[in-house]
Automatic annotation (TrEMBL):
Domain Glycosyltransferase RgtA/B/C/D-like: 108-246
Protein name: Glycosyltransferase RgtA/B/C/D-like domain-containing protein
Species assigned in the record: Corallococcus praedator
Keyword vocabulary terms for this entry: Cell membrane, Glycosyltransferase, Membrane, Transferase, Transmembrane, Transmembrane helix
Organism ancestry: Bacteria, Pseudomonadati, Myxococcota, Myxococcia, Myxococcales
Subcellular localization: Cell membrane
Length: 547
């Protein structure tokens, strides 16, 4: 344990230890009667071995993720950009202090985690492996949280529902930051629940430490500092104790945000520079997506976004039972209301910004911290739905929910796997399988085998759908042997690299360059002629330098 403390993993070790402590042990006994407990459904019978339960849940989470790990590719969640930034950081390790210090709008902790693995694994594996580890481990704090609130059976149900969550399968097998951040956030919720129930500050302290880590990964975690701090004010009938816990928790949450704000103030003159950059991006995104006029259709689409993602990705049985469970818990178990608020209030905030203020464009991956709490409330939701009904009805509800939870993600994964166009592209962001367009990967393989492997160089056009980022990443070409139109240094790199191959996109900006002309199948770049090669599909065109 001492090694764990030195490495900063004590909060995670504490959660794992707590999850494995039987309810009949002193560590799981409720706090004194003066403090209301959080165990809404106390287990009347001895629990099975927690080690076995946690081990089985880890296995249940691991197997489906391993099933797609070897076929998935980095595509969404800025996975390739994050990996490239981690490569740059690992080439010159340093403490990242601001937006322009090597991380841009992304959290620095993700680069710290991915960078070292790049010295051991290929660039298309390292970041995905980080996500896999944290994605599988997420089931532990989820089980610990649910078991504390509603008993071990509820914890198992939540863990199994989480293991089959198709969208999270993609997050766990691609190099975005969602799986890592969600693991930390579940740890925060589990530790806060422990601290409130047992009337102790130590779990709250470690929860605040984990919240610092989550804030260093994604900016949406920042809102949970005031949200959980205020929730702690109302966590006990003893107002002095509640206020003391809340102040202490809030203060421990502040080190990373304050240091990050100071770094950006020194670098950019604005402590909130990264947040403002993200805000500006979303406002422009609303315009580009056709929502600037605020049409009724656009507003309705944003209004129903969170419920729609919950129903489609968690599947109807899990989502509806979880929602019913939240309502029941709110009415019958006031001690769990803080967790309901943690799920509902951020969803309402982002929905208001998207549907009313027109300043935000939601993506499915933005919903995970809220949606992951629905499985926590499966047990009370199931109890409410089947109350007074026959055994057959109870089995039917369980059976239908379980079948949908498995069949829908499997069917979606097959439907979107290496198939493009129309509905396939729209559903791919929430599918268990994540694959790049076939035409892009075909050119990427050509660049990797015919250019990168032979020490050559390439010029790469930009693409409005950002497929040039994917192409450059999977080509395995070093930066010094690429000239990319997307870069401000394109002209200089073009002169230095003297590319053997040029890749053009139909809607790219390469042809707008004054030094580039296209005549039939011949592309001329600064007086050097390149001839188009056969065998590639639009919108990509590959040109090789004439001898």
């Amino acid at each position: 344990m001492r090694v764990g403390r030195r490495l900063g993993f004590e909060p995670c070790l504490r959660i794992l230890a707590r999850a494995m402590v039987p309810a009949s042990s002193p560590a799981a006994v409720a706090s004194p009667s003066a403090v209301p407990g959080l165990s809404a459904v106390p287990a009347p019978q001895p629990e099975p071995s927690m080690r076995w339960l946690v081990g089985l849940l880890l296995l249940a989470a691991l197997l489906p993720r391993l099933g797609v790990f070897f076929i998935n590719e980095n595509l969404y969640g800025d996975a390739v950009v994050r990996t490239e930034l981690a490569e740059r950081w690992w080439a010159s390790p340093h403490v990242i202090t601001s937006y322009k210090d090597g991380t841009f709008q992304f959290g620095p902790l993700h680069l710290y985690l991915v960078g070292p693995l790049l010295s051991v694994f290929d660039r298309d594996v390292a970041g995905r492996l980080v996500s896999l580890v944290f994605g599988v481990l997420s089931v532990v704090p989820l089980f610990a949280l649910t078991r504390r609130l509603f008993g071990w059976r509820a914890g198992v149900a939540a863990g199994l529902a989480f293991s089959a969550w198709g969208m999270h399968l993609q997050f766990s097998t691609t190099a975005g930051s969602e799986a890592v951040s969600l693991c930390f956030m579940l740890g925060v919720f589990a530790l806060v629940a422990e601290g409130v129930e047992e009337n102790r500050f130590q779990p709250l302290f470690w929860g605040a430490v984990l919240l610092n880590f989550a804030c260093a990964l994604r900016y949406d975690a920042w809102m949970y500092i005031p949200l959980l701090t205020v929730a702690l004010v109302f966590s006990s009938e003893d107002r002095v104790a509640s206020l003391t816990r809340a102040v202490g928790f809030g203060l421990v949450c502040l080190p990373f945000p304050l240091l990050w704000m100071q770094g950006n103030e020194l670098a950019h003159g604005d402590p909130f520079f990264p947040l403002n950059a993200v805000e500006d991006f979303h406002r422009q995104w609303v315009v580009d997506s056709g929502g600037a006029g605020g049409s009724l259709g656009w507003r309705l689409q944003q209004l129903g976004f969170w419920p729609a993602v919950a129903l489609f990705t968690l599947t109807p049985g899990v989502a509806l039972l979880g929602a019913v469970g939240m309502v029941k818990a709110w009415k019958q178990h006031p001690e769990t209301r803080w967790l309901v608020v943690a799920a509902v209030l951020p969803a309402l905030y982002f929905t208001f910004r998207a549907a009313v203020m027109l300043s935000f464009v939601p993506l499915a991956r933005f919903t995970v911290t809220q949606l992951v709490l629905l499985p926590v409330f499966l047990a009370p939701g199931f109890a409410a739905v089947v109350a007074g009904r026959s055994a057959f009805a109870r089995r039917a509800v369980v059976g239908v929910s379980a079948v949908l939870a498995v069949v829908m993600p499997v069917a979606l994964g097959i439907y979107t796997f290496r198939v493009e166009g129309g509905l396939h592209d729209s559903l791919r962001p929430v599918s268990p399988t994540s694959t790049n367009p076939v035409a892009v990967m075909q050119v990427a393989r050509f660049l990797k085998e015919e250019v990168a492997a032979r020490g050559g160089a390439a010029a790469i056009d930009d693409d409005p759908r950002y497929m040039d980022l994917q192409l450059a990443f999977f080509s395995n070409l070093p930066e010094l042997r690429m000239a990319r139109v997307r870069w401000d240094t394109f002209r200089q790199r073009l002169q230095d690299a003297k590319p053997d191959v040029v890749v053009r996109f139909d809607e790219g900006n390469l042809l707008k360059d004054k030094g580039v002309t296209l005549d039939g199948r011949t592309l001329t770049v600064d007086g050097v002629a390149y001839v188009e090669q056969d065998g590639f599909q639009a919108p990509l065109h590959v040109y090789r330098r004439q001898p």
